[in-house]
Amino acid sequence: MHVREFRMLASRLKDKSTVQLNIMLSVHGRRNRWSGHHGLECGVFYNRFGAYCVPDSCRHRPAAQRIMAGQVWEQETLAFIREAYSGGDIVHAGTFFGDFLPALSRTAAGGKVWAFEPNPESYRCASITALLNGLDNVVLTCAALGEAMAVESFVTRDAEGRALGGASHVAMAGETSDAETRIVAIDAVIPAERRVGIIQLDVEGYEQQALAGALRTIARDRPAIILETPPHEWVSAHLAPLGYRAEGTVNHNTILRAAP
Question: Are strands 89-93 and 50-55 parallel, antiparallel or unpaired?
Fold first, then answer.
């Protein structure tokens, strides 16, 4: 990416009040360091799908390390989504810094990608990832998915103070939190006239609540559903009656599909 393109990006970010960035090009020209006066420290890395803004605080996380090495995170999951996609929109929760966004945007070229990321730093980086790649069909929201609109305690750091990044999560009972997050429901934020073809959730144990807030959408559109941590009893009680069955796994994610 040329200096002029970086300056144009910085101007767009400033216009969006995301963060003002000082841009420094490395001697390698493909690994660029950004430092923002609001505390955002990040680098830009590339794989075959595009460019990614990776926060420095999360370089120890597996997804970040894979992207920094020029590889694709959960390549098989992205391939399954591409093969299963038959039109409509994609719901993607647990966006992190946007490691799925360029590929999902390309898959849903005729629709939208509704992306949700509750961690503020990750959300800022995902916003930059979307801008770097010109992902005009991505609608990114700084919130977690749940059953209804709410504000919940949120955990963004581990016991040693290291950033959890994509493993940030809504605090469980008795767990010490260090932040709060807004909760939104799929049924409330995605217009009823939109058709949802795929729901992919990587929400750190909050899948049941996210699915409960999407039941109307699921019953109407019968999307393929991909879950990192499936709530088996809840699925049996609420999705099985709609014809959903487990169809295998991909990258340790469970695939649920409704019978024709």
Answer: unpaired
Paired tokens of 174: 């008795």
What is the model's pTM? 0.85
Task: Look at the block and give the residue holding tokens 């493993």.
Answer: 167
Spatial CB neighbours of 259, under 8 Å, sequence gap ≥ 6: 243, 244, 245
- Of 171, 99, 160, 165, which is closest to residue 129 (Cα–Cα)? 99
Question: What's the gap between Cα 109 and its chain centre?
Answer: 17
Q: Is the pLDDT of residue 33 over 60?
A: no
Of the candidates 217, 221, 224, the residue with the CA atom closest to the CA atom of residue 244: 224
The single-letter code of the amino acid at 83 is E
Are 224 and 245 a contacting pair, CB within 8 Å? Answer: no
Residue bearing the bigger pLDDT, 153 or 148: 148
**Chain Cα centroid distance, residue 186:** 14
What's the pLDDT score for residue 81? 98
pLDDT at 231 over 80: yes
